[in-house]
């Protein structure tokens, strides 16, 4: 505990550090503390009492139970890199976008807003291409959709530079690619509680396991 406090103060001497030590599972303690926190930050792997906090089922459970955004520190944080966020128009995505704009503004960083659309439809056992569509027109429409979703946020954060990325298919791969030199990757989570593991989704799971930088998981209010 003393080592942790010292490390925090060595990094930021003006920081107020309040150590908390309780005889309960680490995830329970962090979930309790999240009720009065702006965010919870955990490492991709813990030691000692937090050894169970690896990126996987426990981290997913914490993102479900926490009452605030959870940042999982993994990979490397590129100084001066952008904040990357996935945008799909869902309530979870809107919450992630709000958090990402705030982080980019605080860090004076570029915001990279990534919107991925599909040119296939899901069928039993796989997917097939959608026939007879003007894909250039679809791509143009998707760029317009992304611009409209960002419009209000641009007004609120006029000094934050924004780069828009619109791509077809494979959202996890595109977000991972854009995050290669990022200082933070932000993703939305759909819910909390027993179903959160399913609600987090395959994209969020992939980012938590493979992102090259810290990942923030944000859920709607």
Description:
The protein is of the alpha/beta class and 221 residues long. The chain folds into 2 domains: 1-73, HUPs (Rossmann fold); 75-220, Rossmann fold, CATH 3.40.50.12370. Helix content is 40%, strand content 19%. The chain has helices spanning 2-11, 26-33, 57-65, 91-107, 135-156, 171-178, 196-210; strands at residues 40-43, 70-73, 83-86, 111-117, 120-123, 126-129, 162-168, 184-188, 215-218. The strands form 2 sheets. The protein has a 7-stranded mixed sheet with strand order 1-2-9-8-3-4-7, with helices on both faces. It has a two-stranded antiparallel ribbon with strand order 5-6. Helix 2 (26-33) packs parallel to helix 3. The longest helix has 22 residues, at 135-156. It is globular and about 65 Å long.
What key attributes describe this structure?
globular; two-stranded antiparallel ribbon; seven-stranded mixed sheet; Rossmann fold; alpha/beta; 2 domains; 221 residues; 19% strand; 9 strands
CATH topology of the largest domain: Rossmann fold
How many β strands by DSSP?
9
Strand order within the widest beta sheet: 1-2-9-8-3-4-7
Which regions have little confidence, pLDDT < 50, spanning 5+ residues? 46-54, 120-124, 191-199
Name the helicity range. 40-55%
SS strand fraction: 15-25%
Describe the main β-sheet briefly: 7 strands, mixed
Give the C-alpha Rg.
19 Å
- How would you spell out the order of helices and strands? HHEHEEHEEEHEHEHE
Q: How many discrete domains?
A: 2
Q: Helical segment tally?
A: 7
* End-to-end Cα distance: 32 Å
What is the structure about, briefly put?
With 221 residues, the chain is of the alpha/beta class. Helices cover 40% and strands 19% of the residues.
